[in-house]
């Protein structure tokens, strides 16, 4: 049985974390800007990375470490500067970050993963970074507070830290999985759309860890969009130290699928938190396409609806402008029959059918507006062609989104 528990990346056995301010970010002196996660026990690790052809230096570094190193011990992350479009110097700075972390923790540099987020094109202030690593290492904390401070330190335009943890059982052993992520802008479904760090004490092979993560990304982080922009730094890292001492998961058996279930719940939770915290957003916008002819069709339709600027603007205005939804479905390139589609809106205020067989029902605009005025709104499109479905997450499009991004660097 899966049980939600308090905490984030430090919830599983053996993981410590910390977040501090070291002066990378300008302005607010209270904003933390460096984080570290550490397991004294070696971890097998998996990662998924941006599909943007312009890849930040940390993405290249982590990809090599994940693929070539059998174990890792630590992740170090800065916020404020992305270390993207920084050439050979950016790669050297990744190595310096890893080496400084390795020296501070008495491990090898190829056992350190690095991450950066923030402004593209600027070089890292390495004096502050190295100083920060020296401050983080001796303050690493295995308590809930250590994980929470790390979650705060990776934020950029996020309005809140995003973290979650679950407890479950595998082979009679108590296991835990915890996570934190950041993401608010430059969020688009073309990998995993943010920085995410997931820890677990489950004992599992590296190959199956990677398979579980890469498969689940398709139905979670790949289904999130805020603004249609795919970042240069998108990274999700999953570390497993095996301290739960369950029988090592080596095949796709019952134990494997219990782990997959827990990982999926973590990723869904974080996906919704990212979407609901989109820059300037006032509402989480969830789109469900049901009874699709194929999984691919359902995914394509759901993504097209959730990324439609006109639909997002209508959600902001609490306007049941269902024509924009059908329009977005129509230009998605997925084949369907618009004359048999039903569309519903749903929130905690109720559920209403606004389209039946491609035409408006005799619905109440007042009731529809009430449903759309909640801070979590769902649109359901029933295409009546089969048994497949897909869910995508986004947010409304507001004036504040433009304000935030018009002066992001200033």
TrEMBL record:
Signal sequence interval, chain numbering: none
Catalytic activity: N(2)-acetyl-L-ornithine + L-glutamate = N-acetyl-L-glutamate + L-ornithine; L-glutamate + acetyl-CoA = N-acetyl-L-glutamate + CoA + H(+)
Record-marked site positions (Involved in the stabilization of negative charge on the oxyanion by the formation of the oxyanion hole): 117-118
Top class in the EC scheme: transferase
Pfam families named among the record's database cross-references: ArgJ
Predominant localisation class: cytoplasm
Keywords: Acyltransferase, Amino-acid biosynthesis, Arginine biosynthesis, Autocatalytic cleavage, Cytoplasm, Multifunctional enzyme, Transferase
Function: Catalyzes two activities which are involved in the cyclic version of arginine biosynthesis: the synthesis of N-acetylglutamate from glutamate and acetyl-CoA as the acetyl donor, and of ornithine by transacetylation between N(2)-acetylornithine and glutamate.
NCBIfam families the UniProt entry points to: ArgJ, PRK05388.1
Similarity comment text for this entry: Belongs to the ArgJ family.
PANTHER family cross-referenced by the UniProt entry: ARGININE BIOSYNTHESIS BIFUNCTIONAL PROTEIN ARGJ, ARGININE BIOSYNTHESIS BIFUNCTIONAL PROTEIN ARGJ, MITOCHONDRIAL
Record-given protein name: Arginine biosynthesis bifunctional protein ArgJ
Organism whose genome encodes this protein: Eubacterium segne
Primary gene name: argJ
């Amino acid at each position: 049985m899966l049980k939600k528990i308090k905490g984030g990346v430090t919830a599983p056995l053996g993981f410590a974390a910390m977040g501090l301010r070291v002066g990378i970010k300008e302005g607010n002196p209270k904003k933390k800007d460096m984080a570290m996660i550490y397991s004294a026990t070696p971890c097998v690790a998996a990662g998924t990375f941006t599909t943007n052809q312009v890849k930040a230096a940390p993405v290249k570094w982590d990809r090599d470490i994940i693929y070539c190193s059998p174990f890792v011990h630590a992740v170090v992350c800065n916020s404020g500067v992305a270390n993207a479009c920084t050439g050979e110097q950016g790669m050297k700075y990744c190595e310096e970050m890893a080496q400084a972390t390795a020296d501070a923790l008495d491990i090898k540099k190829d056992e350190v993963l690095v991450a950066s987020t923030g402004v593209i094109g600027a070089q890292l202030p390495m004096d502050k970074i190295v100083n920060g690593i020296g401050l983080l290492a001796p303050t690493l904390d295995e308590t809930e507070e250590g994980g929470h401070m790390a979650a705060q330190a990776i934020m950029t335009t996020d309005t809140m830290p995003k973290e979650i943890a679950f407890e479950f059982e595998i082979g009679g052993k108590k296991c835990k999985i915890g996570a934190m992520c950041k993401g608010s802008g430059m969020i688009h479904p073309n990998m995993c759309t943010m920085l995410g760090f997931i820890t677990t004490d489950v004992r599992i092979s590296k190959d199956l860890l990677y398979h579980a993560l890469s498969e689940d990304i398709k139905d979670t982080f790949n289904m999130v969009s805020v603004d249609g922009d795919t970042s240069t730094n998108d990274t999700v890292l999953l570390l497993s130290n095996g301290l739960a001492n369950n029988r090592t998961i080596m095949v796709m058996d019952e134990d494997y699928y219990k782990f997959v279930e827990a990982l999926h719940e973590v990723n869904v939770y974080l996906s919704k938190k990212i979407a609901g915290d989109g820059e300037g957003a006032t509402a989480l916008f969830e789109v469900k396409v049901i009874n699709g002819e194929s999984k691919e069709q359902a995914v394509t339709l759901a993504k097209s609806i959730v990324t439609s600027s006109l639909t997002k603007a209508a959600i902001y205005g609490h306007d049941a402008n269902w024509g924009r939804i059908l329009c977005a479905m129509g230009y998605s390139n997925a084949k369907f029959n618009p004359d048999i589609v039903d569309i519903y809106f749903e929130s905690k205020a109720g559920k209403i059918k606004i389209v039946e067989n491609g035409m408006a029902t005799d619905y109440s605009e007042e009731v529809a507006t009430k449903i759309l005025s909640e801070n979590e709104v769902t649109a359901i499109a029933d295409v009546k062609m089969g048994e497949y479905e897909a869910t995508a997450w986004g947010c409304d499009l507001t004036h504040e989104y433009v304000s935030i991004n018009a002066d992001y660097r200033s």
